[in-house]
Amino acid sequence: MNTMTLKLRRWMGFLGAHAILVLAMIVALFPIVLVLMNSFKARKAIFRAPMLPPLPDTFSLDGYATVLQRSNFQLYFVNSLVVTLGSMALILLLGAMAAYALSEYEFRGNAVLGIYLAIGIMIPIRLGTVSILRIMVAMKLVNTLTALILVYIAMGLPLTIFILAEFMRQVPRELKEAARIDGASEYRIFWLILPLVRPAIATVAVFTMIPVWNDLWFPLILAPGEKTKTVTLGAQQFLGQFVSDWNAVLSSLSLAMVPILIIYIIFSRQLIRGLTAGAVK
Question: Which of 15, 133, 234, 257 could link 76 by a cystine bridge, Cβ 3.0 to 4.6 Å?
Answer without folding.
Answer: 234
